[in-house]
Amino acid sequence: MKAEELQQIKEKVEEGYLPQWVVTDPEIYKLEQERIFGTTWLFLGHESELNEPGSYITRMMADDPILLMKNKTGEIKAFLNSCTHRGTRLCTVDFGKKKTHTCPYHGWSYNLDGELIGIVAGNKVYGEKMDKSEWGLRPVPRVESYQGMIFGNLDHNAVSLEEYLGEMKWYFDIMLGRSDGGMEVRGLPQRWVAKANWKMTSENFAADPYHVQTTHRSAVEMKLTPTDPLYASFGHQVVLSNGHGINVITSATGKSANKYQGMPESMWPMFEKNLNNEQLGIFSRVTTFVGGVFPNLSFLSSCSGSEGTKHNHLQFRVWRPIGPDKVEIWVWYMIDKALPEDYKEKSYKGFLATFGAAGTFEQDDTENWARIIEASQGRMSRDRKLNYNNVANYLMGLDNLEPDENFPGPGTAYPSCYTDHIARSMHKYWLELIMEETRG
Amino acid sequence: METHLHYEISQFLYKEAYLLDHRQYLDWLELLTEDIKYVMPLRVTVDNKTKSNFISEMSYFTDTKEDITMKVERLYTKSAWVDNPAPRQRHFISNVMIEPTIIADEYKVRSYFLFKRSRASEINTEELFGEREDIIRRENGEWKIAQRTVYPDQAVLTVMNISMFL
Ligand code: FES
Ligand SMILES: [Fe+2]
After folding, report:
1. Does the CA dihedral A189-A195-A198-A200 come out positive or negative?
2. Distance between CA atoms of A422 and A112, rounded to whole angstroms?
3. Whole-angstrom distance between the N-terminal and C-terminal Cα of chain A?
4. Kind of pairing, strands A64-70 and A76-80?
5. Cross-chain CB nearest to B44 (options A188, A362, A363)
């Protein structure tokens, strides 16, 4: 990619535009693979998915298959899921439990710490000189977790996960650390493939409550959501460091009809013990938290069900890029371990009805993500010598929305969720990363 | 009698597929009993060949008649964009196998399905395939579906969404 092209993107981004062609451009995609997915913290899974020593799960970091294992001392380790002999994918299943992983090609085997412990006909073919300790599985350079959320990073020199999450930690504490025992993932993530670009899907969750009233209009027609076109705008859009962001959506009154997102009163003392006053204040008023951790982790904590009997659920999702125009969607459903079983069941049902591959909200989102791809790949959406200058508009709230100094949480909080502040901050960070030469 | 039963139930499943493919969802709803359980668990990949590779903790849906009716009604709204313009869809149903149950007039019916869908001018078609396990019941002389479990063959589905009924 030519420096001058990147410079042109930069000028647009600074004015609140994004050239449409960057959505799906193959060269941009290559840069993203190297400079974004190769350097940022990517979500791998939740600690509740790995219960006992020997438990393992397989995940993806963009195109790299990853094997996560819990070792004998209870530590979680992550490796490139590839045999060090000829590179064969070592484990092809989604989850399980075992003490050693043996490669089907020539039978090399590895323990829970990724060490090579067995070579078929070892000394007879390799002689005495081969040092097994040099042939362990290749570890993911950095693996760290926060509130049970495990992330990996391919860049040895990356800042710590906690530093990377920065101000997001405070909000993660509300969603993940509010109850004793924390959260648990139910089953495994749903997985399916959509025609979409990872930037647009990430933006959809992190930065775009404005789409709710139109994309999900069928819910209004069905009388499931309010008719007021501003209903998803009330509250604050909070811009956080490193391209992260969260929308703290309330209501016209600034409150929620369902305190603590409709969680039973028996849980409240627990929240009051685990959270500080500012966090409690936000949590008691919020109807929906929706946001994202750059680059491709999104979350939504919402309430489903009928008025008066709303049930909260938390979902995390990864948009794994598998091309400029395709994502593999992974959706984890999470719930407070401490909740009563019947609440959990109702919450789960509410989740399935609204989100996930069969969820009615989700279905209409997928349609719009595909339509962005369909209209972004042609000549007219490129800004070459043709000077069509086709740009997508991110100007909302550009000059008429001042941050709310009284907002109690960290970050820069704008007093409406119908604004493009997070989207612009994502684009700025995205550009900063793709303009950066690869680090050594 | 056996052959006749097989014919009747297969014809019933083909008719059902016809109604779905022709978007006659309200008529299709009539084929479901009031107490229907309609579920689609997640197919996962596990090491053990003999153990089930479905998990019941997580599904794509676990619907009652009320849930299905809501979904149908939604498809008739003006703004269910996923269905507007309507994609073309085809359910291919085959390998129908019927077994009696301990309840008279209720049969366990297995069938294979291949679902294909064409969306707008998209040249790639979507597909989903697998097996269904139904409980089919005769109620007042009419065949009805009392239970359906949809077992997809893919652990990662290659459809953009599950807005269709399977
Ligand atoms: S490739 Fe794994 S043992 Fe040879
Ligand atoms: Fe949406």
Report:
1. negative
2. 41
3. 20
4. antiparallel
5. A188
Amino acid at B36: I
pLDDT of residue B1: 54
Distance between CA atoms of A222 and B75, rounded to whole angstroms?
10
Q: A194 forms bridges with which residues in the sheet?
A: A327
From A82, A86, A132, the mutation candidate for ligand 1 (largest count of ligand atoms within 8 A of CB) is A86
Provide the pLDDT for residue A251: 94
**β-strands B142-152, B32-43 pairing:** parallel
Residue A189 to residue A326: CA distance in whole angstroms: 18
> What is the per-residue burial (b if ≥16 Cβ within 10 Å, else e) of A403-432?
eeeebebbbbbbbbbbbbbbbbbbbebbbe
Which pLDDT score, from 0 to 100, does residue A208 have? 97
| Residue A26, preceding peptide bond in cis (omega within 30° of 0) | no
What is the complex's ipTM, to 2 decimals? 0.96
Residues 6+ apart with CB under 8 A from A244: A165, A166, A167, A168, A206, A291, A292, A293, A294
Q: Tell whether A187 lies on the interface with B, counting CB pairs under 8 A.
A: yes
Question: pTM score, two decimals?
Answer: 0.96
How far apart are the C-alpha atoms of A165 and A179, rounded to whole Å? 21
pLDDT band at residue A387 under the 50/70/90 scheme: low
